Design the sequence.
């Protein structure tokens, strides 16, 4: 069963918003990247629209966008089908994300303000408390805000924009369900924070790169456990 994000369901008049198709594309992209829908499965417009409580038009627009990204392809007279997603594809996406995020972390280490450091500390504490209460939504929200504050502190808007383009392929709303991700993120964040406090750009770069690659490895393991990739016969 598809998990429907809060951002889409139950919002009056949302169908009139021009960015709705982008939100639907994010939703479907995350379904694919988290393994909830798989290679060869058809994505029926009416079914997705019904699940999200919206019309079919933004769903079609989203699927056409995802077709351009290579996530789905269109079979004549049959509809949109999920394209193949290899282990290497997932690893490559996280490699690119790690490379850009690492450079932003290094720049942040040199430029971050005491106020930003305090905010990061607070977000880290909030994430830890949310983990104690097993509040997955709060964990993911604190994690997202942690990275946003850090990236903005780098004062490199073009590089931050490039990272945002890559990050949209990562299943943000499903990380909390991946075994080991919460614990790994809390520990990785502590190492990143220590590097930022020390204003050690090299250490921050290394810590962030390892953090993102680690997240990618956990996602790959999660997909493998689900049998996402068939073993070669």
Sequence:
């Amino acid at each position: 069963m598809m998990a429907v994000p809060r951002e889409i369901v139950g919002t009056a008049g949302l169908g009139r918003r021009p960015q709705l198709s982008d939100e639907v594309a994010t939703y479907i992209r995350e379904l694919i990247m988290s393994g909830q829908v798989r290679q060869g499965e058809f994505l029926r417009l009416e079914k997705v629209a019904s699940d999200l409580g919206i019309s079919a038009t933004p769903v079609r627009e989203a699927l056409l966008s995802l077709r351009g990204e290579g996530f789905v392809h269109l079979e004549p007279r049959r509809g949109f089908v999920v394209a193949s997603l290899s282990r290497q594809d997932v690893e490559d996406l996280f490699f690119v994300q790690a490379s850009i995020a690492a450079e932003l972390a290094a720049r942040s280490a040199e430029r971050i303000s005491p106020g930003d450091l305090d905010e990061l500390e607070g977000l880290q504490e909030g994430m830890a408390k949310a983990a104690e209460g097993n509040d997955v939504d709060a964990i993911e929200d604190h994690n997202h805000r942690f990275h946003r504050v850090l990236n903005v502190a780098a004062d490199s808007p073009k590089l931050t924009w490039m990272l945002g383009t890559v990050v949209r392929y990562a299943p943000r709303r499903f990380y909390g369900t991946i075994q080991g991700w919460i614990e790994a993120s809390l520990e990785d964040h502590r190492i990143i924070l220590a590097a930022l406090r020390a204003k050690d750009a090299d250490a921050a770069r290394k810590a962030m790169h390892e953090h993102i690659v680690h997240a990618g490895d956990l996602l790959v393991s999660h997909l493998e456990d689900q049998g996402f990739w068939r073993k070669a016969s």
